[in-house]
């Protein structure tokens, strides 16, 4: 095939024209660095130049004015357009300059000088948000503040024995609640966790002399719960049952010369805040990770707990997307409301150093729940026209009789063979 046969009819934004000649400017963008005392320069390559195209074109004929105006409109239109170049084929370009000339000698003809530059694509580095990772980071930050505050807040030194015993009893009682929560863990993780709880119970009297170390050990147990529950939602509810509530007081600190009873009450409040805030942190973290989707970064051996930065174990977010925890958007929103209400109840008790971190956690919960990457179905109302077995209803609604258990979970009935004729809560597909 001859070269002329390979040429394509020229057009810009579908406005056709002929081409007499063309030229193209290409190459590299460089910066030439010429240094004093050196004979040879250094040339820094910054990438390819935007390709430029110059065409000398024309339109001719007794109705050439229509073709001329169409080409001028195309050249003056904003944004990039498609140029069909006779030699280079289809290109996405922007017309940067156009000139047109007409004369009486060459009647019925308009000549154009067209300048184009390659448009390319608008591509910028894009940062992806990680709501789950942000929530885990916020939880770890709050844990660090809690350890630091507990180290300064809890103090048995100089207290009468009966008040010290009361404070230690409050500590022991709350540590024992962790055994109850530990029963909700995956079977493979129950024994190691319960062994750690027993070890802490045996050492609580000795560790009470070093509150920062004791606080870090307690936080470590709650951190171990993240991603370890066999049923994550059940684990979250178990944490709330075990640690939410109790006698709450706004944190005001101690007077200049506190009485032993005031100090003992302050210790009791320190224990209450530490355990409840740590439980809330563990519940929030559990809401964004699944079992085996998270690893725990342990402190280095010999680390100085509570005094040299955040030495308590920290949660590391999963690299891959976790299996959705929630069956419906309604469940995710309900859990978010529970966590936020719990945090609002607890916030007035927190010392100033931890309050700011708690508000960061609050914002992270709002961003992470529900997860925008996993589109969750909503619960909607559906009324059967007549009583039906739940397996038949599941097949009619979802095309899958195995989803009958899902319908029963949202609609407990006396007998699954007769689903009643009244509004039922079912998932929208």
TrEMBL record:
Pfam families (alphabetical): DNA_circ_N
Domain DNA circulation N-terminal: 7-93
Protein name: DNA circulation N-terminal domain-containing protein
Organismal lineage: Bacteria, Pseudomonadati, Pseudomonadota, Betaproteobacteria, Neisseriales
């Amino acid at each position: 095939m001859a070269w002329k046969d390979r040429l394509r009819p020229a057009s810009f934004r579908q406005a056709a024209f002929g081409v007499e000649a063309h030229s193209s400017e290409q190459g590299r963008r460089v910066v030439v660095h010429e240094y004093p005392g050196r004979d040879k320069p250094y040339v820094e390559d910054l990438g390819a130049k935007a390709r430029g195209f110059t065409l000398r074109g024309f339109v001719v004929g007794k109705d050439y004015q229509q073709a001329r105006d169409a080409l001028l409109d195309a050249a003056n239109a904003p944004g990039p357009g498609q140029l069909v170049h006779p030699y280079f084929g289809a290109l996405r370009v922007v017309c940067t300059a156009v000139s047109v000339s007409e004369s009486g000698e060459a009647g019925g003809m308009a000549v154009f000088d067209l300048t184009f530059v390659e448009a390319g694509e608008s591509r910028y580095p894009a940062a992806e948000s990680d709501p789950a990772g942000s929530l885990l980071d916020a939880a770890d930050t709050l844990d660090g503040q809690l350890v630091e505050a507990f180290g300064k807040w809890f103090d048995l030194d100089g207290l009468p024995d009966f008040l010290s015993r009361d404070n230690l009893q409050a500590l022991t009682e709350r540590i024992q609640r962790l055994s109850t929560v530990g029963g909700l863990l995956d079977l493979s993780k129950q024994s190691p966790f319960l062994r750690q709880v027993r070890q802490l119970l045996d050492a609580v009297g000795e560790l009470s002399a070093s509150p920062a170390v004791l606080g870090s050990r307690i936080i470590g147990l709650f951190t171990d719960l993240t991603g370890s529950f066999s049923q994550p939602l059940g684990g979250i509810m178990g944490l709330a049952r075990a640690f939410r509530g109790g006698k709450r007081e706004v944190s005001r600190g101690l007077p200049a010369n506190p009485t032993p009873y005031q100090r003992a009450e302050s210790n009791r409040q320190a224990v209450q805040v530490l355990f409840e805030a740590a439980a809330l942190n563990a519940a929030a973290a559990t809401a964004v990770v699944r079992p085996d989707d998270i690893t725990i970064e342990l402190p280095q051996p010999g680390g100085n707990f509570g005094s040299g930065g955040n030495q308590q174990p920290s949660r590391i977010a999963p690299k891959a997307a976790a299996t959705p925890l929630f069956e419906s958007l309604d469940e995710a929103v309900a859990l978010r409301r529970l966590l936020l209400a719990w945090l609002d109840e607890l916030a007035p008790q927190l010392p100033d150093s931890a309050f700011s971190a708690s508000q960061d956690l609050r914002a992270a919960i709002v961003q992470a729940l529900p997860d925008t990457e996993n589109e969750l179905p909503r619960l909607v109302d559906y009324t059967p026209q007549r009583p039906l077995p739940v397996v038949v209803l599941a097949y009619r609604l979802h095309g899958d009789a195995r989803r009958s258990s899902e319908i029963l979970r949202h609609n407990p009935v006396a007998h699954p063979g007769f689903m009643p004729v009244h509004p039922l809560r079912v998932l929208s597909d």
